[in-house]
Amino acid sequence: MLMVIFAAIALGTGSWLLLVGLVPPKLTLAQQMARAQTANRLSQAVVGSTRPTLSAQLGSRAAGWLARAGLPSAKVRGQLALLDKDVTALLAQKVGTACFGLMLPMASLTVLTIAGVSVPFAIPVVAGLVLGGTLFFLPDMAVAGEVEKFRAEARMSVRVFLDQAVIALAGGAGIEAALISAAADGHGRTLGLIRQAIVDAQLRREPAWPHLDALGRRLGVRELSELAAACALAGSEGAKVRASIAAKTRAMRGQEAATELEAAEAATTRLAVPGGLLGMSLVCFLIYAALAAAARQM
Questions:
Q1: Cα(162)–Cα(258) distance, integer angstroms
Q2: Are residues 19 and 112 in the same domain?
């Protein structure tokens, strides 16, 4: 009877949290203005994002507590700044996924109790704590994956930028003009940041290499920083700069080909796993049938 009471309490709490997340209470005018002012001080969410997820809605109230506790870490904050995402949205998602992990075993206990299956209460409690703790760090792993994907796309954008710069230099353009022309031909966030770095260098009447180096360190794209160092050593002679950029583009193209080949080989290996499991299942089935037949004869 006590287990049924605890299961009913857990189910009721989960239903209440779900209802609060879907139908939030109405705020007064003062509360809405304060929330709007706070949102203006925070960084804007990534462009093109849709409505917040259910987990983010459920955890939005506890996001402030986590922020005051020093979460997320400085590394995760840097990754969010690189992706131009909001810290509060990540904290809300962490809380929502953790609550989902905590409530899932309790809901399963309720179903089993109604079905007449007796389960010790300690099992869903421990399972809820483990699952909730695991899902709490799941959004951080997702952010790290997005950062790796963004940096791979940024490297490709840098390589395209360098290809265009080599073409402009071969046509007789100067270094600054070639860089401006190469950055103006493409679209995307990375090329936009490169254009902004070149414009800042022009406004300050400085070489573009220090600004490109700072951008490369900010984005975590090592190739852009290496390009800036190589071009700074080459000086202002267009032929030397063109040779340095051409060598860098060849190296980046070879690295991209090696990365794609490695990804293709990994995908091929993953495709072989289901076939191997199917073959092992068939062998086990045949062995079981032979052993069952031998046992009947004995």
A1: 19
A2: yes
